Amino acid sequence: MTSQEVRTRFLDFFKGKQHKIVSSAPMVIKDDPTLMFTNAGMNQFKEFFLGNSVSSSKRVADTQKCLRVSGKHNDLDEVGKDTYHHTMFEMLGNWSFGDYFKKEAIQWAWELLTDVYKIDKDSLYVSVFEGSDDADNLEMDQEAFDLWKAIVPEDRIIMGDKKDNFWEMGDQGPCGPCSEIHVDIRSKEEKTKVPGASLVNQDHPQVVEIWNLVFMQYNRKANGSLENLPEKHVDTGMGFERLCMVLQGVQSNYDTDIFMPLIREIEVITGHKYGNSEEVDIAIRVVADHVRAVAFAIADGQLPSNSGAGYVIRRILRRAIRYGFTFLGTKKPFIYRLVKVLSSTMGNAFPELKTQYQLIENVIKEEENSFLSTLEQGLVLLESVVKTSKTKTIDGRKAFELYDTFGFPIDLTALILEEKGYGLDMEGFEKALQVQKDRSRSASEVSKEDWTVLSDDSTQEFVGYDALEADVKLVKYRKVSSKKEGDQYQLVFNLTPFYAEGGGQVGDKGYLKAPNGDVVYVVDTKRENNEIVHFSENLPKDVSGTFKAVVDKKQRWRTASNHTATHLLHQALREVLGDHVEQKGSAVHSKYLRFDFSHFSKMTVEELRQVENFVNARIEGQLPLEENRNMPLKEALGQGAMALFGEKYGDTVRTVRFGQSIELCGGTHVKNTADIWHFKIVSEGAVAAGIRRIEAITSDAVKEFYFNNNRMLFEIKDLLNNAQDPVKAVEGLRDENAALRKQVEQLLKDKAKGLKNELMGEMEELNGIQFLAKKVDLDAAGIKDLAFEMGGQISNLFLLLGAEKDEKAILSCYISKDLVSNKGLNAGQIVRELGKFIQGGGGGQPFFATAGGKNPKGIEDALKQAREIVVS
Ligand code: ATP
Ligand code: MG
């Protein structure tokens, strides 16, 4: 059965059980401070489990792109070494939100595996939660046990502890006991030798967990305690790649049709065969796995970068580059060449891989190039560390420096040192690393109290599209503390006019006014999961009662102007540059806007001018805002609305239209483009391979921009004695300056000539040598010119010139080549000797050499000494 069929059958099966099939949420999470990447199918439904929102369908099924490389679920170090853990994998899941529970979940799972997929019943094992006698004090899951007992023989039911059979998403959030299904794919012979039951949950590569049925019934609170959820839910997750391994009768996920095309391509590119050596195999698996994670992340809008989620992606890619570098001998970028195969094998299920193919390739290639050169630099540095080391063990702090400043991986350092017969002081490295970690952790650590809940009103309506003021009630609040921000309060209201940061737009600021007149400032507004959270520095004295919530009007207007201008800019870029332009990120602030987009060359001045004109024409055109807050997604896309990759859209969306510009957007906008006043681009540049960035300003900021320019012009005019035409005046100054420069040069030349003539007249004949030692007023270059010119005219010249500049001394000695060979004189030796007088040193060639020193007073003595040298 092909992997495509496996996926379709899963979804069809649950469709037949009245499940709604939904699409995968983005792999990169943007609005949940507790999670960077989707690590399980349930993430996108967390709010339904917690009862914060209600799902329109009680039964749902999907395949979800997951990434387990950070936080509670981190498989990164295992990936490639084993055959069944990936960084990015697909999780097939079915869900019940307060609808069916254990009975149906268990029966359907069994039916699908044994009836539809026809997996041999005798190769399956199931596990049940045995309870815990720790602080949670949980009972054994008798219900699940009884349900399984009706289906499978009791010796195939394995009791599991909290680690394996109590599922938690993270340190907080929904959780509950689970029942896993494991499959034994060993040969018949092996099965008779060692019973499968003894290998379940023992990290055996052929007895692996494929499906986890989680029965959600608790919420883990910040203080560590469990509370019952308002309703009971089902959350299941089946590893798609593992299922394919079982159904395709192979022994490793990598032997399925999901990975084989990638592996074949790696073989072709690197010339290494898969299946001959463990080291090479691991490297090939690492590369085949990691290219998927990175490609999907980029398609989701997450580019590799130096912080946060982008840094995690960069590290994954670097891990692949490093394995290639060390074990596959790839010294040139090659991973980007796999993107083509990937997009042709997975592009049907995930079309974003096809549409973003070019970008993904470019970004990966650039990352490879830059990391490979880092590796090379690192190797050179490592070489010098080894050379200068007095012992056979390299200092851990040195290795840390390499790691910290060059991103040179420590295991590679260790490996290379080993090859050279050196050891590494790992302890010293770990210590240095720990010091750095502690430093950054204490700066970023945030402690959060549990919410104090005042009412169970969970409407949370956002009324800020229409109003900038509203009467609100506090629903809950909590204190959060961090070193960076200090103590802050987070406030949630029943409704709010404050826009929460999202879609690139910053959150609103403003204030709350209590009935008694007290004012509390709102410094920011952010969305956390589905809640709009207001940040303030203090708490109202009396938290009950009705507050007047007031948004900072001016900031909102500036931000709205920038947001609308961003839409117009997007439209303009597609018009001027072409349809390949796609939004790759945007930041809408009150003071400026930033827009990143795909395009492959620097924009010309003419293109920038056209874009600016296009936007300003629409501002002058006074286009009204036409918004539809409730349009079916299909209809909106049908109207040509711009949707973004990596964004999760619901069934109905909000559309924002100004003339021909129409976008799916939740942000706040001006009522009419005329409100923007004017649009001005302030910079254009590259941010990554194939991605450009424009920064622009509107409204007040443009006014300020022109005001400042104007003031500068006045200052310039003032400096030019109020010239009528400052441009002409500056041109005049420029020409005059050039003419003066020429004159000065000529004068200097004349002076040098004069000096030369003067010196020629002062020559003294000593022992058949034309001798002169004198202090002159020239710099080193002038002295050299002069000496060589005189040397050209006199064939037995000994010249020593001294000069003083900025309290420093120089001595230059010129000796004709004839004298060097006939009399054994050596200018290099002589200046070294005379250098003593000026407290310095120097050197050069036998016929010309220079010394510098810090004692100009010694020049006279040096000149006298030169005579001694020639006379003697
Ligand atoms: P394991 O113990 O094998 O790491 P898990 O207990 O971490 O699995 P769950 O969190 O229950 O797994 O996830 C549900 C299913 O997703 C698993 O049954 C498995 O089939 C699959 N799965 C989990 N982690 C990975 C991974 N890193 N790569 C591929 N599939 C995975
Ligand atoms: Mg795991």
What this model shows, in words?
The protein is of the alpha+beta class and 872 residues long. It has 6 domains: 3-245, Bira Bifunctional Protein, Domain 2 (BirA Bifunctional Protein, domain 2), CATH 3.30.930.10; 259-373, no CATH class; 389-444, no CATH class; 447-551, Elongation Factor Tu (Ef-tu), domain 3 (Beta Barrel); 557-706, Threonyl-tRNA Synthetase, Chain A, domain 2 (2-Layer Sandwich); 752-871, Diaminopimelate Epimerase, Chain A, domain 1, CATH 3.10.310.40. It has 25 helices and 36 strands. The strands form 8 sheets. Strands 1, 2, 5, 6, 7, 8, 9, 10 and 11 form a 9-stranded mixed sheet that branches. It starts with a helix and ends with a helix. The structure holds adenosine-5'-triphosphate and magnesium ion. Adenosine-5'-triphosphate (ATP) binds at residues 40, 68, 75, 85-86, 89, 91, 209-212, 237-239, 241-242. Adenosine-5'-triphosphate is lined by residues 40, 68, 75, 85-86, 89, 91, 209-212, 237-239, 241-242. Its EC number is 6.1.1.7. InterPro entries: aa-tRNA-synth_II/BPL/LPL, Ala-tRNA-lgiase_IIc, Ala-tRNA-ligase_IIc_anticod-bd, Ala-tRNA-synth_IIc_core, Ala-tRNA-synth_IIc_N, Ala-tRNA_ligase, Ala_tRNA_ligase_euk/bac, DHHA1_dom. It holds the Pfam family tRNA_SAD. Its cofactor is Zn(2+).
